[in-house]
Amino acid sequence: MSKTITMNLKTTDYVSRVLGVIKEKYGLRDKGEALTRFAEDYGEDFVDREVKEEVIKEVIESCNRHIKKYGFRSRTVADIRKKIEAK
Fold first, then answer.
1. Could you tell me the pTM of the whole model?
2. DSSP code per residue over the chain
3. How far is Cα 24 from Cα 34, in angstroms, rounded to an integer?
4. Between vectors from CA 47 to CA 2 and to CA 3, what angle results, nearest 5°?
């Protein structure tokens, strides 16, 4: 399920014209919908829609290796503050 987010954008005249052309080409209501359409069409070239199962497994395995090697150390805010202030 996708969530709608409101944005206020500053852009160049060229980008505005491109979004205007996309808006007209696909019969969209506004340039916001044109931007959404553009992202839907070309976004997967840059970002996966969902995290792949193998990536999740790699992260879990990496965490488990780290914990096995270094142990699991729980730290309090006071411990962290002491470490930072000692520098």
1. 0.56
2. ------------HHHHHHHHHHHHHHT-SSHHHHHHHHHHHHGGGTS-SS--HHHHHHHHHHHHHHHHHH------HHHHHHHHHT-
3. 9
4. 10
List pLDDT tens digits, range 49-67. 888 899 999 999 999 999 8
Rounded to a whole number, what is the largest CA-CA distance in the chain?
A: 61
The predicted pLDDT at position 37 comes to 96
Q: What is the dihedral of CA 63, 66, 68, 73, to 10 degrees?
A: -90
Distance CA 20, CA 15 (A): 8
CA neighbor of 7 nearest in space, from 38, 32, 30:
32
* Residue 9, amino acid: L
pLDDT at 1: 56
